[in-house]
Design goal:
Structural class: mainly alpha
Oligomer: single chain
CATH class: Mainly Alpha
Radius of gyration: 15 Å
Largest sheet: none
CATH topology: Four Helix Bundle (Hemerythrin (Met), subunit A)
Number of helices: 5
CATH superfamily: Hemerythrin-like
Number of domains: 1
Shape: elongated
CATH architecture: Up-down Bundle
Helix content: over 70%
């Protein structure tokens, strides 16, 4: 299943929207690598990128939420922390047990759904805050 950013996910900050678009592209890249039977190294490299990029993006997003006094800033931080814990645990499982198609496809589905839901329910709350400054 393809995951893509659309205008309904706009935060009002282009840097964040661009990062969201990039995250969706890499989630799809993960699924495509598995579907094409790519080796463990490529899948682990994609997971490494996603983990590093997500952590960096989350820090930037949390800074914006605080700077623009978004009422969901604390919810945003908590969801980011929970996501990073889930992602780190899943990545460690893949590294320990090897790349299993089912595990990585479930991870890709979970990542895509989490991104979409998080952006639409939390991140978009930033837009009116940005507009009021």
């Amino acid at each position: 299943m393809a995951f893509a950013w659309d205008d309904s996910m706009s935060t009002g900050i282009e840097e964040l929207d661009e990062a969201h678009r990039t995250l969706f592209l890499w989630v799809d890249k993960l699924g495509n690598a598995m579907k094409q039977g790519k080796g463990k190294d490529e899948v682990v490299a994609i997971l490494d990128f996603l983990g590093t990029y997500a952590a960096s993006h989350f820090a930037c997003e949390e800074d914006c939420m605080n700077r623009y006094k978004c009422p969901l800033a604390l919810t945003n931080k908590r969801q980011h922390d929970e996501f990073l814990l889930f992602f780190t645990k899943t990545k460690a499982e893949v590294e320990a047990n090897g790349v299993k198609v089912r595990t990585v496809l479930e991870l890709q589905q979970t990542l895509g759904n989490w991104l979409r839901n998080h952006i639409l329910k939390v991140d978009v709350s930033l837009k009116p805050c940005v507009g009021s400054h």
